[in-house]
Design brief:
Blueprint (H helix, E strand, L loop, with lengths): L1 E5 L3 H10 L6 E6 L10 E3 L2 H5 L6 E4 L7 H10 L3 E4 L2 H6 L1 H11 L3 E2 L10 H9 L4 E7 L2 H12 L4 H10 L8 H4 L2 H15 L2 E2 L14 H9 L2 E12 L2 E12 L11 E8 L3 E8 L3 H16 L11 E2 L6 E2 L1 E4 L8 E5 L2 E4 L2 E2 H10 L4 E4 L3
Parallel strand pairs: 1-2, 1-4, 2-3, 4-5, 5-6, 8-13
Antiparallel strand pairs: 7-9, 7-11, 9-10, 11-12, 14-18, 15-17, 15-19, 16-17
Length: 371
């Protein structure tokens, strides 16, 4: 295997290091915008050098973002090259474009590192689907948010203090919007659910509520009542209906989700035969992520492409009703079940209605109660 590696940042460098000793694969080209010299690979600023090299059979995309990643990946597939990517935003946003094209061109595509970093979550979904139906997927998939919530819960830090720590440790960017507003989690949910169910969910109907508005007073209320708050994603199939959403959720102290520390991920599936299976591990980092990129390259050597065939487009209803903790905003008193020291706990509300209300009250914070 001769690899054209797009990007030489954290993940790209890890891929280069892990493939170096292997006799069955070689990084032949590296696309890098900064000056770089490598002893055994050509460095270029022009993607066409990689695209037009007939000896390059595999492109590893590690630049992130939507553009020019989309243009590079589509061009590589059209040129008959296999593609590995760790880019969840790319796969989630352009799923309906990428999957049909790879099937049409007869090329291979994998993205295991895009969800769960080093856990190998998507490969496990592929394995489970061989003999049973996946009924539900979800969990904690963003290490930045988990670190913030864990620090606020266990060490009583303020949101601002916990966020500053994640930035100092390199878990969060200077602009943490993608993480704290649930966008990263949203992307990972879309990729996971499409693969788990063998469909293409209508992403316009999948809401995401993040943790930007959480305060120490919220955490104190949760702790006093035996709860821990986590940002979770969930997608479920119930007959012909599909639910999919991202939102802060309260868990009783002591259950697996409540105990996930620091920047770890805990991702869960429910199978029709095997029941509940959960996977705990590092969700990011150079070597955990690069490990699964290289695993995908090995899968290519064994002829394994995407985890499922491109499936039908399906609606997301989100009409399941849950009770919510609400602090701030103009929540109607007649729809309040109880009061938690000045914050409301709602009567059961359909998920889509709660998220619609939150859009109209963006200063509010919500968290779903167990149900």
């Amino acid at each position: 295997m001769r690899i054209g590696l797009l990007g030489f940042g954290t993940v790209g460098q890890g891929v280069y290091e892990l493939t170096g000793p292997r006799p069955d694969m070689q990084v032949a080209w590296v696309l890098c915008r900064r000056p770089l010299s490598l002893p055994d690979a050509k460095v270029t600023h022009d993607f066409n050098d990689i695209l037009l090299d007939p000896t390059v059979d595999t492109v590893v995309e590690a630049i992130g973002g939507l553009h020019p990643a989309r243009e590079y990946v589509l061009a590589a597939i059209q040129a008959g090259k296999n593609v590995v990517t760790a880019n969840k935003a790319l796969v989630a946003t352009f799923y309906d474009e990428l999957l049909p094209l790879t099937q049409e061109q007869g090329t291979l595509l994998r993205c295991t590192a895009s969800v769960g970093g080093g856990i190998g979550w998507l490969s496990e979904l592929e394995r489970v689907r061989r003999i049973e139906t996946v009924e539900q997927v979800g969990g904690i998939v963003n290490g930045t948010c988990n670190y913030i919530l864990d620090a606020m819960t266990r060490r009583s830090l303020s949101y601002e203090e916990a966020l500053a720590q994640t930035q100092a440790l390199g878990y969060a960017e200077a602009d943490p919007t993608t993480d704290v507003d649930g966008i990263d989690t949203w992307h990972k949910l879309i990729v996971s659910a499409n693969i788990a169910f063998g469909v293409s969910l209508d992403i316009s109907a999948i809401p995401a509520a993040g943790i930007r508005r959480i305060r120490g007073e919220d955490v104190a209320r949760f702790r006093a009542r035996g709860y821990t708050c986590k940002l979770i994603c969930q997608a479920a199939r119930e007959g012909a209906a599909f639910h999919a959403f991202v939102q802060p959720t309260l868990f009783p102290q002591g259950v697996p989700e409540a105990t996930v520390p620091d920047n770890y991920n805990l991702i869960t599936l429910v199978g029709s035969t095997s029941g509940r299976q959960s996977f705990l591990g590092q969700g990011a980092g150079r070597y955990p992520t690069a490990y699964n990129v290289v695993q995908d390259c090995v899968d290519f050597l064994n002829g394994r492409g995407f985890y499922c065939r491109y499936g039908p487009k399906v609606r997301v209803t989100n009409d399941k009703a849950l009770c919510y903790y609400v602090r701030g905003g103009d929540w109607p008193r007649e729809r309040t079940r109880e009061n938690w020291d000045g914050a409301a706990v709602t009567e059961p509300v359909p998920i889509f209605q709660m998220h619609r209300w939150l859009k109209e009250n963006p200063e509010a914070f919500i968290a779903a109660l167990p149900g």
